[in-house]
Amino acid sequence: MGVSTSCAEKGVRVVTVDFPPVNALPVAGWSALADAVRAAGRDPEVRCVVLAAEGRGFNAGVDIKEIQRDGDGALIGANHACAEAFGAVYDCAVPVVAAVQGFCLGGGIGLVGNADAIVASEDAVFGVPELDRGALGAATHLARLVPQHLMRALYYTARTATAADLHAHGSVWRVVPREGLRTAALGLAREIAAKDAQLLRLAKSALNGIDPVDVRRSYRFEQGFTFEAGLGGVGARVRAGFGEGGRR
Q: Which of these, 3, 14, 88, 204, has the minimum number of CB atoms within 10 Å of its CB?
């Protein structure tokens, strides 16, 4: 359980998240993920990183139970740690390929929205259910995956989009059967890693430099409203009903 790094093949590192039962990461998990991605990108032998997960789903966001238990300290810790993890993926010196199965929610969107390419299983779904969890955030990253009006509708309703939907919008590279996900992601990573190492790193910097939105600043702006919701009491009130299955 936790975050692990493996050498899949020459030039490719796989960073794997495994926090049963649903990969809802605690504060320490987000920090460990950020450290692992940064370390992989700093390795001069690495030309591509694959971000993967074990279990039923890729990522279910932050550990709401930790925030319910530990209060504002955990909320602030999660916001900072998520920002670092998302930033580590975006700023990784080499391209990052996300291999997504099952659910990719909340913080998971922050990861894949900042990745360079996404390969998804046929059962993958993507969404930001933050309004059901007493928080705000990751609209910055959802907007990198779907058009603006769809992003807003998904955000307000907390609904999800399928891998096929995102493939149709051009944000998912390939949709494959779940059993072929790791093979497909490694295949793309292998193709990327075949390029010149120095040019790949230059290309990553160049593409980040021409992005129309500063993802770090945009996400931190969103987080300010999470703090406001917390100070106003609505965040805790909505989170109090998390997991009960009823209207909050």
A: 204
How large is the angle between the packed helices 72-91 and 215-232, nearest 10 degrees?
Answer: 170
- Can you count the helices (H) and strands (E) in the chain? 11, 9
For residue 21, say if its preceding peptide bond is cis, omega within 30 degrees of 0: yes
Q: How far apart are alpha carbons 183 and 191 in whole angstroms?
A: 12
Q: What is the rounded CA–CA span in Å between residue 70 and residue 56?
A: 27
Token duo for residue 15: 């960073």
3-class state of residue 95 by DSSP? coil
3-class SS of residue 233:
coil
Q: With b meaning 16 or more CB within 10 Å and e meaning fewer, what string describes 181-208?
A: bbebbbebbbebbeeeeeebbebbeeee
Show the tokens assigned to 164.
């096929």
* Angle, CA of 17, 20 and 22, to the nearest 5°: 85
H or E, element range at 215: helix 215-232
Q: What 3-state DSSP class applies to 244?
A: coil
Per residue of the chain (248 residues), what is the pLDDT tens digit? 899 999 989 999 999 999 999 999 999 999 999 999 999 999 999 999 999 999 999 999 999 889 888 877 888 899 999 999 999 999 999 999 999 999 999 999 999 999 999 999 999 999 999 999 888 999 999 999 999 999 999 999 999 999 999 999 999 999 999 999 999 999 999 999 999 999 999 999 999 999 999 999 999 999 999 888 888 889 888 888 765 543 33
pTM: 0.94
- The answer to whether the CB of 48 falls within 8 A of the CB of 204 is no
Sole residue written with tokens 């199965």:
101
